[in-house]
Amino acid sequence: MHARTWLSVLSLPLVAAFTVPVLQQGNPPKPQPQAGAKIAPQDPLAGLSDIQDVLSLVQQNYVDPPDMEKVVSGGVQAVLERSHPLNAYLTAEDLRLPDPGPAEAGLVVVKRGIYATVLAVVPGGPAAKAGIQAGDVIRKVDGDSVGRISAWALERKLRGPENSSLDLYRYNATGDLTKTTVERQVISPGPLTIKQGQGALLVSLPDLAPGRAEELRKALAAADHGQTLVLDLRQCLKGSMPEAAAVAGLLGSKGDFATLEEAGKADRVLPVTGMGTAFTRLALLVGRSTLGASEVLASCLKKNGAKTFGERTPGFGVERARFALKQGGAVELVSKRWVGLGGEKLDRQGVVPDQVLRMTDADDPLVRVLAALAAPAPADKSTVRPADRILTPDRILIPDEGVPPHPPKRPNP
Q1: CA 187 – CA 185 distance, rounded (Å)
Q2: Is the model's pTM score more than 0.85?
Q3: Which of the four pLDDT bands, split at 50, 70 and 90, describes residue 133?
Q4: 177 and 206: one domain?
Q5: Same domain, 314 and 371
Q6: How far apart are CA 118 and CA 139, in angstroms?
Q7: Are 185 and 176 in contact (CB under 8 A)?
Q8: pLDDT per residue over 56-73, tens digit each?
């Protein structure tokens, strides 16, 4: 692929990400203009000649003949990931690859630099059976370093034919790099579950796939709406915004659901759809595996009065679009962002619960939430301790800024 393709596709991001900081660091500060003097407009493309010079110097002077396609594609991918970890550059060869298969590993990961952090694990899925947990850090997938592949390629590697094996090299609690083999399986959508308690009802939603709102409506048809409803979204991994808006309406919300911000277009407000009967009291359970549409749903219900417990959500209320390139490749860009009713930019901070509530597998979530509802409110509900930090597009799920949750004793080059 010719270097001109790269320059024509991502000239402005490249200038912003690389050229401008270099010019600012390498040149002394310019004298301030006098009062009343006109400031000459800066040319945003002024650094493109420097980028072309760098490519030419690499091609002509590197000790070994470089593969310029890898040089260019690697540079493009690095710039894309600096904007958002889900952005990806696809070559023409990538677009011709066949579908990897219907089976999956049963986990959701996000790439950040040379690592991939596990956001969520499907309960009972292959990854869960292999002992992988949310927060684990993956360094290699089937022997390939995570740092060398895009988010698109990483998602493909997690899929494959049924019963095929997948090798994940991850850091364990002691910081050692260990190999875990996962057998991919076709994972069917799980049913919603309902648990009746003393004056309260616990409903767990595994996703917001099409038809989930109707399933929930039928399940709640005979329920006593005078009791407390606890909606568990901690493992709600996938789904659509229209289905989430329908669930919000079913639970008594009215009016706006969320706002969609899209590059180059006016903001669009998605309304709540459908109508249901509100419960006397509604509480939410959210966590690190509350992703995408379920985050927007949680924001809407919280703004409409639902008490929210659990842990802060990751902040992945975004959508990607694919844009074809003239010479055969494509780029996948995060081009849409959802903003919650509380003003949360759900590609960044996520949904912050009213009260942090951590639970183990042995805990009864309904009992814990009812106890929290009955207890006096904490003195400072907005406090988020360093240990509560989670993965966002700007940082990895970490106990301390700058290191993975299980830092390696001997980092792998």
Answers
A1: 6
A2: no
A3: confident
A4: no
A5: yes
A6: 11
A7: no
A8: 666 666 666 666 566 566
- State the pLDDT confidence band at 18, using cuts at 50, 70 and 90: very low
Examine the fold and report which residue of 133, 151, 183 is the final residue of a domain before the chain moves on.
Answer: 183
Q: Which residue has the tokens 């830092």?
A: 407
Number of domains in the chain: 3
Q: Identify the CA nearest to 181 among candidates 163, 171, 162, 168.
A: 168
Which of 184, 80, 110 shows the shortest CA–CA distance to 142?
184
The range of the structural domain enclosing residue 70 comes to 1-13+49-83
The residue with tokens 């023409």 is: 92
Secondary structure E strands in 246-329: 256-262, 268-271, 281-286, 307-310, 318-324
- Look up residue 272 and give its two tokens: 């709540």
3-state secondary structure of 321: strand
Query: At 227, which CATH number?
Result: 3.90.226.10
| pLDDT score recorded for residue 91 | 87
Once rounded to an integer, what is the mean pLDDT over residues 292-318? 94
Q: The tokens 């040319």 sit on which residue?
A: 43
What is the pLDDT at residue 1?
A: 42
> Which are the contacts of 129, defined by CB distance < 8 A and separation ≥ 6?
none
Cβ atoms 313, 291 nearer than 8 A: yes
CATH code (residue 136): 2.30.42.10
Measured between alpha carbons, how far is 129 from 347 in angstroms, rounded to an integer?
Answer: 30
Q: Return the number of other C-beta atoms located less than 10 Å from residue 317's C-beta.
A: 28
By the 8 A CB rule, do 316 and 265 touch? no
